[in-house]
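thought: fold this chain, then report.
action: predict
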Amino acid sequence: MAGAASYADDGRLSPLSTPSATRAVLEAHGIGTKYTLGQNFLVNDDVLKKIVALAEAGPHDRILEVGPGIGTLTIALLKHAASVTAVERDPDLPAVLADTLWPWRETFALIEKDALDLTADDLGEPLPNKLVANLPYAVAATVVLDYFERFPSLQSATIMVQKEVADRMAAERGTKNYGAYTVKLGLYAEVAGRFAVGPGNFFPPPRVDSAVIRLNRRVPVAADGTPASPALIAAAARMADAAFANRRKTLANSCKTYFAGDPAAAAALPAIFAAAAIDPRRRGETLDQQEFLALGAALIAEVGER
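observation:
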């Protein structure tokens, strides 16, 4: 391969968005796809355009990307945003990215580490305001919730994930996909758009259907109308885990199981339900985020912050 600087302008958003171009890059660097890292490279330029449009990537955006691969989506983002900082754990890919992203080297930064170990110190200043990524599917759900929790500068996330993960992220209360993860993510973000992506849009094709979903940060409010504190959000998340410890059981029984190792919290459950005005005979899937915030506030009042 002659290098990214020699790419012809063929009208594509990314010159790497074809199977032949992707294969050529991999072969030029003597590497292949790694199933263990969930590597399936996007090879449809129209999908790239839809991702960039859904993310509303613009000249003032500082984008964080996880799993840039060979830089296919990265190039599309760099053509629109002020900068892209990418996190990649595969030691074979930095050399590839140095080649494919050479024309954008002034606005691209690479962090070589596991995305789950990323810190604000790694990112430097100014911090990114958007997450846009074709996420490794094995860690996608964890990364999204973790980043909304730990990086308050992120105002939105537009991510490619497995369809079933997108279903959990966007699940409505009372449905089978609505669970503790849905509740906890909903304490930080709300769905702002989604579209499906079939296996044929990747090289090699994955064995699952995919979806791109956009999540916008939200700031939940406490009962008094003020923004919920981090401690309150954490307590609400803990009550969500307790409520879904056994989703077939009532709140009373599921929470009793969850708090079996915390005698103080277990003993306080009747008072917690009473203070939150929640019927303990209900099940977790019937509660919304505000009700979990009420339970979280009652948990703090009864046993303190944990």
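thought: worth noting. The two ends are 55 Å apart (CA to CA).
final: tokens above.
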